[in-house]
Amino acid sequence: MWGDRPAAVFGSWRAPAPKGVKQTLVWRKPVDAGVVGSTTGFRNDTELVFLTGAWPKRPAERSSVLTTDVGMHSYLNGHPHAKPVPVMQALIEMTDGLIADPFAGSGSTLVAAKLAGRRAVGVELEEKYCELIVKRLSQQAFNFGGI
Predict the structure, then answer these.
(1) Residue 10 DSSP SS3
(2) Contacts 24+ apart (CB under 8 A), 116-125
(3) Which residues contact 79 (CB under 8 A, 6 or more apart)?
(4) CA angle (6, 132, 71) in 5-degree steps
(5) Cβ–Cβ contacts within 10 Å for residue 105, how many?
(6) pLDDT tens, 104-132?
(7) Count: domains in the chain
(8) What is the CATH number of the domain that holds 74?
(9) pLDDT digits (tens, 9 = 90+) for 22-40
(10) What was the pLDDT predicted at 28?
C-alpha cells in the first residue's frame, strides 16, 4: 500500500530486512544505551535504519551512521522505542513532501516534521501513546494547509 514512496524503517540486526531496501543506515545510540540484553561486555547500542522506496537523488554528503550526542534521558518519554527528534530530523531533511508515520509511538517524527516546517500525519493505535503525542505537541502549532 505504501508503493514506492521513500520510507525509513527502523529494524534489528536479528530480524530480516524489509523488501526493497535501497540503503541501510546505522543509528549509534548514546553511551548509556544498549545495556539490556548485553551479555558479552559489548552494549547493544546500534539500530538499523532501512531506506526503502524512491528516495530523492542527492550527493553523498552525510555519513550513513546517525549519532545521538545526548543520553537516553533526553528522548525516553514513556514509549519503549522512542527515537530522538534529531535522528528523525536527519531523515526528514533528506525527503520531500508530506511526512507520514504509521506507527507514531511517542510522536518524535511529528515533532521533527514540525521543526522542519513540514506537513505530517501520524497514526497510533494505542490510546496511551496518543495521549503522550498530544502532550508533546500541545505547545506546538501545526499549519495543515490544504488538508
Answers:
(1) strand
(2) 116/89, 116/92, 118/92, 119/143, 119/144, 119/145, 119/147
(3) 105, 106, 129, 132
(4) 75
(5) 21
(6) 988 999 999 999 999 999 999 999 989 88
(7) 1
(8) 3.40.50.150
(9) 999 999 988 888 777 778 8
(10) 93
Q: How many CA atoms lie within 13 A of 107 on its CB side?
A: 19
> CA 113, CA 68: separation in Å to the nearest integer?
18
Report the C-alpha gap between 77 and 82 in whole angstroms: 7
The SS3 call for residue 28 is: strand
Nine-digit cell at 39? 551479555
Q: Which amino acid is at 39?
A: T
User: What distance in Å separates the CA atoms of residue 86 and residue 108, rounded to the nearest whole number?
Assistant: 9
Residue 62's identity, in one-letter code, is R
Nine-digit cell string for 4: 514506492
pTM: 0.84
Residue 56: give the domain boundaries.
7-137
In a domain, 146, yes or no: no
